[in-house]
Amino acid sequence: MKANLDVLPLSSWIDTAGKPLIIAGPCSAETEEQVTETVTRIAKEGYAHVIRAGVWKPRTRPGSFEGMGEAALPWLAAVKKETGLPIAVEVATPQHVELALKYGIDILWIGARTTVNPFNVQDLADSLKGVDVPVLIKNPVNPDLALWVGAFERIAGAGIKKMAAIHRGFSNAQETKYRNSPMWQMAVELKTLFPQLPMIGDPSHMAGKRAYLYELAQRALDLNYDGLIIESHRNPDEAWSDASQQLTPEALGEMLRSLEIRKPSYGDDFQSELEQLRQKIDNIDRELLEVLAARMAVVEKLGEYKRENNVAVLQLDRWKQLHNNRADLGKRLNLYPELVEEMFKLIHMESIRKQTEVMNNQPA
Ligand code: PEP
Ligand code: MN
Question: What is the pTM of this model?
Answer without folding.
Answer: 0.76
